[in-house]
Specification:
Largest sheet: none
Mean pLDDT: 91
Shape: globular
Oligomer: single chain
Radius of gyration: 24 Å
Number of strands: 0
Helix content: over 70%
Structural class: mainly alpha
Number of helices: 28
Low-confidence stretches: 1-11
Distance between the termini: 78 Å
Order of helices and strands: HHHHHHHHHHHHHHHHHHHHHHHHHHHH
């Protein structure tokens, strides 16, 4: 093979450097083995060899998932270099950037890719992502499956790049968002059949099984993942185990697994462990300890920011969200609202306007929730119009519906429960992977309206969400507690059995809860015995 004659798909990625292409191809192989840590330096090496290599910058951005500043910088570079690439590369880069920036430009870019390149995978893949962001989960499945069927070479491992693999993951996600875990499991097992030696679908299967309440099977899937991923670091394996133990409510085991990470001497590992342990501690009612962990997490994260990039307008970094959530759960609503509002103003300078609008709407909504809990309806009124104006600037249907949630809180505070229920239902993006506080607020209103079965229907899917995402804003024990109340309100013998089971789960979790939980814990323990 000649050192000066590019072969195969090198022509598709517009670099004249064979050395750069080789780094790029190695990076793609690591990337699609779910090894982003190894992939990123390879993409960076490709860029060093060819500073105009747009696709290397693009994949460096995608791989830099734990470094938001590098990700923004590399996406910015890829977008600037996109004019030097082929039309297909340019559209692909801009579509992915639009997806990550929650930009409404995603849909037209996906449509353009599909029309101009109907025999290529990218248009169908990004169309599926666009439909998912728009809340059309079931409609997204057809274009995503089209992408899977078109990318047989990627699935077979005959080329490094594998959009079909990404599309399979998004098919599973579509079913998760639609709260169809049986279908998500079926599609994950199809993925395993298509890629029997890949660790990634086994990791995804473990997630789906834990969300279905099948912990033993989930742990077995993690073991299978490990057999195909010999390079997985011990820290990642322990973290995965901790997350799955959290789904099951085995919080003592979670804390033991994370304790070693906290003593690892690695700031990154400590920061990650603090994030997950604070979630565990909140579920246990140990809010004083959770506040300590969330503040340590924030301090470690803030230390990573270059001083010149920290905004000078009194805003708090997004990593302060854990601290704000603990303050809310402690009943320190004014402090929580102030911190959420501060986070909504955070920017490092490279964000797209759509991303800033998305973040501002999201964190202002959290602040509104805290103000509602504090009884401040004036503050709620002031935020409704702002959140409603910000929503359409984002491609996420969730953001466009948040104002219904804030309006629902206002109506509930005014005693207009029937109208509040209507608004809160309009706020729902996904019953299982949306904003779980919406499920909780709706359930409270429905219980007051004497509709406990409807409250149960709103709450059940919330336990199918992700512990570090949709379930982050409501401890899973709180969901169990409210489900217990709803089942008790139904009142028949079978319902009372269900109520006792949920109360018993909460009682076990709160065995070492703070003294501020004493009254709630007493009610829960009594309910578990009734």
């Amino acid at each position: 093979m000649s050192e000066t004659t590019p072969l195969g798909s090198i022509a598709d990625v517009t670099t004249r450097s064979l050395t750069a292409y080789r780094f790029y191809e190695q990076g793609l192989r690591a990337f699609y083995a779910n090894d982003y840590r190894s992939a990123l330096p390879l993409f960076e090496a490709a860029l060093k060899e060819d500073s105009t290599f747009a696709m290397a910058a693009y994949y460096a951005a995608v791989a830099a998932e734990t470094d938001p500043r590098l990700r923004l910088a590399r996406f910015g570079l890829a977008a600037r270099l996109a004019t030097r690439t082929t039309d297909r590369e340019r559209l692909t880069i801009l579509a992915h950037e639009a997806y990550l920036a929650s930009s409404p430009a995603l849909r037209p870019l996906a449509e353009t890719l599909s029309v101009r390149y109907p025999d290529e995978v990218e248009g169908y893949y990004f169309m599926g992502l666009s439909l998912m962001q728009d809340g059309e989960f079931m409609r997204a499945i057809a274009p995503l499956n089209r992408a899977v069927s078109m990318d047989s070479l990627g699935l077979d491992g005959e080329r490094a790049r594998c959009l079909g693999c990404d599309a399979l993951r998004q098919v599973v996600s579509s079913y998760q968002l639609a709260d169809s875990l049986s279908a998500a499991e079926r599609e994950t097992r199809r993925w395993i059949r298509l890629q029997p030696r890949s660790p990634v679908p086994w990791h995804t299967l473990a997630e789906v099984l834990s969300q279905s309440g099948r912990t033993t099977e989930a742990l077995a899937a993690l073991d299978r993942e490990a057999t195909f991923d010999a390079g997985q670091r011990e820290a990642e394996r322990l973290l995965n185990l901790a997350v799955h133990r959290m789904y099951a409510g085995n919080y003592d085991q979670v804390d033991r697994l994370l304790e070693g990470e906290l003593e690892s001497g690695s700031p990154f590992r400590e920061k990650t462990a603090l994030w997950y342990r604070s979630i565990s501690l909140r579920a246990q009612g140990r809010l004083n300890d959770a506040l300590v962990d969330s503040r340590r997490h924030r301090a470690l994260a803030t230390a990573d920011y270059p001083k010149v990039r920290i905004p000078q307008r009194g805003s708090a970094p997004t990593e302060a969200v854990g601290e704000a959530e603990v303050l809310y759960e402690m009943g320190r609503y004014r402090a929580a609202a102030a911190l959420f509002d501060s986070i909504s103003r955070w920017a490092v300078g490279d964000e797209a306007p759509s991303h800033l609008a998305h973040a501002r709407a999201w964190y202002m909504t959290h602040a509104a929730r805290a103000l509602a809990a504090a009884g401040d309806t004036v503050g709620l009124v002031a935020r409704i119009d702002t959140v409603q104006a910000l929503g359409p600037q984002s491609s996420l249907a969730r953001d466009r519906r948040l104002h219904h949630y804030v309006r629902g809180l206002l109506l509930a505070a005014r005693g207009q429960d029937a109208a509040a229920a209507d608004e809160l239902e309009r706020a729902v993006f996904s019953w299982s992977f949306g904003y779980t506080q919406t499920n909780m607020a709706l359930a409270k209103v429905l219980l007051r309206l004497g509709r406990p079965k409807d409250a149960i229907a709103a709450l059940r899917p919330a336990l199918h969400g992700s512990v570090e995402a949709s379930n982050f804003y409501v401890p899973r024990t709180d969901i169990h507690e409210m489900l217990a109340q709803a089942w008790a309100a139904v009142g028949d013998p079978a319902a009372r059995d269900s109520a006792r089971a949920h109360y018993a789960f909460v009682a076990r979790a709160w065995a070492r809860a703070d003294s501020s939980f004493a009254a709630r814990r007493a009610r829960v323990e009594a309910g578990s015995k009734d």
